[in-house]
Amino acid sequence: MSPLVGFSIYHFVFHGGFFMYLLLACSIISVATIYLRATALKRQAIIPPEVENEIEALPVGDNPRALARLYNVVERSNSPFARIVYVSLRLEAFPKQENMEVVQARARQEVLQMESGLGVLEVIVGVAPLLGLLGAVSGLVTVFGELGSSATVSDPRTIAAGIAEALNTTIAGLGIAIPCLVAHSFFSRKVERLASEMEILVNELLVKRYSQSEETVTFDPAGQP
Question: Where does residue 184 fall: left (phi above 0), alpha (psi -120 to 50 degrees), or beta otherwise?
Answer without folding.
Answer: alpha
